[in-house]
Amino acid sequence: MLLKAVFWDLDGTLIDSEPLWHDGEIEIAHANGGEWTEELGWSVSGTPVPNVAKHMIERGCTLSVEEIDVQLKDYVFQAEVRRLPWIPGVLDVLRSLKEAGIPSMLVTTSPRRMAENIMKQSDGLFAGYVCGDDPYEHKPNPAPYLAAAAKLGIAPEDMGECVVLEDSAVGLKAGAASGATLIAQTGWIRTDTSGLGQFASIDSYDGIDAAALDEFVRRRLEA
């Protein structure tokens, strides 16, 4: 295979976690004098938690940015420890890649404990991860993807032979800037992410396996 590695975003790409974040936002806001809805949650989806917290404060939440950050991450982490809401079919894709000898790397802005929980519950399907606690610029900067590639011994000039799977605007911008063959997962996000440098878009994992991802790389490099 030409495909060297696959780099996976977490939320909305591997797991359908946005509902957990929105449930936490609503619970925290309403418990502390604020107003919040699922629609408001989607409007700031994919942005760092401190940014979400600022919007929650504007809507009347009396907690500080730091307090919201801690409480919201705790809420989602505990929910994910109880059960990871894997997106249908994604574990089959990961197994196909492992069987083909293609490493998968988790690349997330989420904190280390969330990344470690993924590693624990994925039964060895990932070669490693880069998370928000690592000393790299966050997405949309491509640094996390380039750092993940470096961990596998993949040089920046070879990123075209790797696939990045992302869903959010900031993540897609990071993947495009990394030089990778960028695939947008559109099935679990409600915002328009078209025109952000993706080579192709998918709305499920039906028909996706190691061979299909390798074909995306071949088509992109031939274009």
From TrEMBL:
Gene3D superfamilies noted in UniProt: HAD superfamily/HAD-like (3.40.50.1000), Putative phosphatase, domain 2 (1.10.150.240)
A Pfam family per the record: Hydrolase
Top-rank taxon, per record: Bacteria
InterPro entries attached to this UniProt entry: HAD-like_sf (IPR036412), HAD-SF_hydro_IA (IPR006439), HAD_sf (IPR023214), PGP-like_dom2 (IPR023198)
Membrane-spanning segments: none
Annotated organism of origin: Bifidobacterium myosotis
Protein name in the entry: Haloacid dehalogenase
